[in-house]
Amino acid sequence: MKRKICVVITARASYSRVKTLLIAIKSHPSLCLQLVITGSCLLEKYGGLTKLVNQDGFDPIIKVSNLLENENPTAAAKTTGLGVIELASVFENVRPDVVVTVADRYETMSAAVAASFMNIPLAHVQGGEVTGNIDEKVRHAVSKLADVHFVATASARNRLIAMGEVPENVWHTGCPSIDLAIQIKNDAAMRFDYESCQSFSSASKYIVVMHHPVTTEHGFTKDQFCSLVNAISALHIPTFWFTPNPDYGAAQILKEIQRYGETSKNLKIHFLRNLNPESFLKLIKHCACLIGNSSTGIREASLLGTPVVNIGSRQQGRERSFNVIDVDFDSNAIIEAVQNQLDHGHYDSSILYGNGDAGNQIADLLAKMKLSVNKQITY
Amino acid sequence: MKRKICVVITARASYSRVKTLLIAIKSHPSLCLQLVITGSCLLEKYGGLTKLVNQDGFDPIIKVSNLLENENPTAAAKTTGLGVIELASVFENVRPDVVVTVADRYETMSAAVAASFMNIPLAHVQGGEVTGNIDEKVRHAVSKLADVHFVATASARNRLIAMGEVPENVWHTGCPSIDLAIQIKNDAAMRFDYESCQSFSSASKYIVVMHHPVTTEHGFTKDQFCSLVNAISALHIPTFWFTPNPDYGAAQILKEIQRYGETSKNLKIHFLRNLNPESFLKLIKHCACLIGNSSTGIREASLLGTPVVNIGSRQQGRERSFNVIDVDFDSNAIIEAVQNQLDHGHYDSSILYGNGDAGNQIADLLAKMKLSVNKQITY
Amino acid sequence: MKRKICVVITARASYSRVKTLLIAIKSHPSLCLQLVITGSCLLEKYGGLTKLVNQDGFDPIIKVSNLLENENPTAAAKTTGLGVIELASVFENVRPDVVVTVADRYETMSAAVAASFMNIPLAHVQGGEVTGNIDEKVRHAVSKLADVHFVATASARNRLIAMGEVPENVWHTGCPSIDLAIQIKNDAAMRFDYESCQSFSSASKYIVVMHHPVTTEHGFTKDQFCSLVNAISALHIPTFWFTPNPDYGAAQILKEIQRYGETSKNLKIHFLRNLNPESFLKLIKHCACLIGNSSTGIREASLLGTPVVNIGSRQQGRERSFNVIDVDFDSNAIIEAVQNQLDHGHYDSSILYGNGDAGNQIADLLAKMKLSVNKQITY
Amino acid sequence: MKRKICVVITARASYSRVKTLLIAIKSHPSLCLQLVITGSCLLEKYGGLTKLVNQDGFDPIIKVSNLLENENPTAAAKTTGLGVIELASVFENVRPDVVVTVADRYETMSAAVAASFMNIPLAHVQGGEVTGNIDEKVRHAVSKLADVHFVATASARNRLIAMGEVPENVWHTGCPSIDLAIQIKNDAAMRFDYESCQSFSSASKYIVVMHHPVTTEHGFTKDQFCSLVNAISALHIPTFWFTPNPDYGAAQILKEIQRYGETSKNLKIHFLRNLNPESFLKLIKHCACLIGNSSTGIREASLLGTPVVNIGSRQQGRERSFNVIDVDFDSNAIIEAVQNQLDHGHYDSSILYGNGDAGNQIADLLAKMKLSVNKQITY
């Protein structure tokens, strides 16, 4: 009897980050994959994931629509509440042996609450890290509901143990997001196909911007965007700019992006919603500098050696490699840091976040580990 | 402008335990109380709290009905999801400055998720303790979502700090449940009025049983009940037996209680649903031994000096005074432990869980403390 | 490509009533059955349907737990709202070609709203009838959301057409509940096995009581019960009494039943929760008189020729055969009516509600009919 | 003791249409207004109503956020289910004597189900009319749940009576939307202030477009938009074009509008999200032709005498005055009809939908009418 492993994906980025894990579960002789897609990634406007997931060979998938219009933080709470209710039904019907939840977006709380309250063993991927934002609270709360942890770094493991998690339930497997990054890194032939980005001319040197709202600093969202866009404008370098995650504050950023698009007529900036995981990593691999507050700068970019300018509090405290320069939301500071990174060029690859085998390791552990829902803090 | 303090009560027992805090908030010159009643305590069959709360002078109260029929653990998850959704609406409409959530029942997660996701400072009462059951997971997860902690014991404070909470946000105030217990303890005149318990004759010596299901040990619920009821029957002492909380497994216990009631015709056992907080404490104060797995045995009973036989894993790890003997669900072991306690008689009072001023201390801190929703693990 | 027919069952009684339809859909070469079980019939305490449905060969079933504790009418609304949300997810995942909803219990509104709002053709069984209670509103509102109607009687068809439904979408197929009743009626060999009712002695003559709360007359629930129980007590005839549906008011009736059971020690009354559909119909077929306000008295009993005393407003206006005497909730009136029915004995069978082929007829129509979600009132 | 009248507003347009009723209730000596704002009108992107409502002197208002991201019809169902749940809580807390629901948008079903299931008398404004779209089903279903009806036209009253509603519960008061329109019509001084529409130059002659998706014809949304935009482009007349309601299909129209805006550079079309009710009516009063499928063309425009070209099935069957020409979604047909209307010029005012006193009449009836939740179809 195969163990049924139910993985709940709540955002496009999370899918990319566990894709190798999904493949490893699907192809494991002792495991059966139950894939649930929920939240923003069901919606076309946020880069609907359904088609991509089917193309990648995952079928069937279970869909749970639960995203409320997100103009205010009430919506985040209600989306999560709705997620708990609906995932409880999914779990009641498909009866997983283990539920896997990924990272620290607020919606991950849905799967964590539903599984733990229903006495289903809960596995958490990417726990034990540190950042700012509501993610910080969510990540550690999910760890406290989880029965087993698959962490990216040695210090993440130490942190979970310090928090009172039982050491034998905390596995340092590396992060599955690195598995894919290593494949892209090692494939000399692969280069990002600029032609696929319509309306943007080919460029030998370009930068990438990924800027998400900090939900706990909502009053500053507009100012933060202005500092950033002023810096990028002043740099006069071809730029791929990804629109934000659908979090509280995203609507404001999108409005500012639109306003900027209409008034500046800056042809050097190309706004993107998303790419498929492989194209995305190729874009990051070859870019001269990645700027913003996405965890991609900390995580995949460290493996790819991409220079990163990380801005503000969102990634504050997250362990990083030498490829990252940290600055505040200040135009001049951003410009200076980017110039420094352009001068430096690419960095050596770091395996801080994994050595490329996380997906397989986690799948093996899911197949073999002892299942339990009873745990107690160690002190 | 008074600070608006929204306290969310999810169970009858929680009300008793924070009653002195509610009074302290209500009468504080800088605070305004917003009282929300939700979960089982809205229902008559679980001892409907509405009337009692109104009698105690709290008015208006906001009611949130969210309890699903609880035959299975799916219901606990859905009740909580519904709670998140509805409390988000309540918070959006009454706009509290602080939300207070109490202890570790699964429904407390509703208030914790809704408040933290909406960037409302969250205060948690009774964090940092250790037990078994799903409560253990819930308690620590809520602590990770909370911005400020009011704890009952010094070791609870140390534990939260070890878990990475910022020390200046962890206040050792004692538990407000002890405030009421001290009033009862000090009032020599007050004695439990047996007459108010119809159909049960007055008794000079009686025992009390409080036995709740352990949701994570569901397969053993019936066996555990049988061990207990056999022991109690064999003791032949007048017994007040409280029916369980409406958790997963309670339906099974209630069925067994009914079956026992019908077949045994044991006139020495009187089954009770609940009492008002003061009568309840008087009953505990004067009883010869409190038996079961309720935290009352650990908490209020330590102050009152009542001998306790604590059974099984539910309170495992919770700090206790010398008034408690721990045994497994084994009839002979239970009988022997009760006999030992009867032989010993009452214990000296312990202030392990507080010195009687917790309600006032917490209200003062709520009025004065710096409010923030940004926190980060300390290591 | 088979048409996918999704039937949503919300109560135990509804299952019995469409069982022949479910069999007909399952065995139809052009149809594929998607069976959803929701509401009270998922819970053991209301006679959990899951086991029975599996025994009957229906597998898989989709389960949707949505029943809130039903002490007040808020619970009925919230249960229905939760049903809409969860059925929307079910429909999104299983993509039915037609959704079938049955009769007029309040929860049927869930399936009707979810399907019609999602542009899925909605078929309604048992529309066009008239009663009292909230059922009256629900039934006609569901008809207004439905695209096709399968009705039990000629006057139900006329009524729907008078209400503005397009005549060619209103099919007079008879009621599938009669299909099963005819099988029982024609099987001379089958007799209710009294032995299976433990603690009740065999009886040559017995009556059956089915009494449900009238949710819109809540203030009178206790009085109504008293009138009824007094009459039944006075009759001194062995009685099978079915406990009520889990509607608003049921808790009160259950409390009165328990009180009566404890105080009266009336050994002639045996309280039952439910039987399987076939045993139930055998019990009704052979009973001397069926008393109460259940539609069974109007519907199946007319085919079986069972004498019926129908009480109060709940079935007011529903078309009936000559086997029914109507009275108010008045003890003397009830006694007199029962005596008259006992004197009269069994009636001739009536085919007012169908001739036994409804299940097959409806399945054929579901396979062949033109599907559309556009309709307009005819005047 | 004043009767508490709870009015539930689910969309910006509904607010305009019952504004005079809200004023009448608020100022009525025997009534107390409880105003609930829910659905799209809470969101800024759909023209957030909160500020406007407060400016109009309504305070406090109760807010219920329930709008899911609306890319698919699943969202409409879930939004409605969430509305039922949350409105049930609101009604439980504010205990209205009557709930008033308006018109036929899908979300009105929320208030109708919650109120009727909770035994609260339900009043429906604008029932008995005929259209296409899901509105047609919703409107009649709500009528079947409602206890009292305030209708706009004599034939709407006749239709409800034909549907089996009790005649004395169906009041022909006219539509409160006409009350405001008459005020605007009679005020010679008031003229729409073009200056307030930034980026659009003053114009002596202009047309207005209001085009909403037909949720039941989703496959044709893009084609319908193209027919319409081609016709409007060809007309070369200054145009105010209102963006659609947030229904299923709106996202597609918004995308087409954006694409058109970017590619056509047509400076004659000004896209608007919304205006306050008075400015909106002034805009309609003075426009040369109103084009699209909004009920404004049928309702307010008939009173204002504005020439209307109504397109497609959305208003099919709704009673109309002589100011309306109906055409299909065909560019040439639209152009020809608009030309005919421009040639004709303004029409005489019609009082088909009311004589300007509906708000007061309805408030008086709400104060005096007998309250009941028991009704039965009349045949």
Automatic annotation (TrEMBL), chains A, B, C, D:
Listed Gene3D superfamilies: Glycogen Phosphorylase B
GO biological process terms on file: UDP-N-acetylglucosamine metabolic process
Any one GO molecular-function label of the UniProt entry: hydrolase activity, hydrolyzing O-glycosyl compounds
InterPro entries membership: UDP-GlcNAc_Epase, UDP_GlcNAc_Epimerase_2_dom, WecB-like
Top-rank lineage group of the source organism: Bacteria
Domain UDP-N-acetylglucosamine 2-epimerase: 24-366
Any coiled-coil regions, as ranges: none
PANTHER family xrefs: UDP-N-ACETYLGLUCOSAMINE 2-EPIMERASE (PTHR43174:SF3)
NCBIfam families: NeuC_NnaA
Name under which the protein is recorded: UDP-N-acetylglucosamine 2-epimerase/UDP-N-acetyl-D-glucosamine 2-epimerase, UDP-hydrolysing,TIGR03568
Organism for this UniProt entry: Dyadobacter psychrophilus
Phylogenetic placement of the source organism: Bacteria, Pseudomonadati, Bacteroidota, Cytophagia, Cytophagales
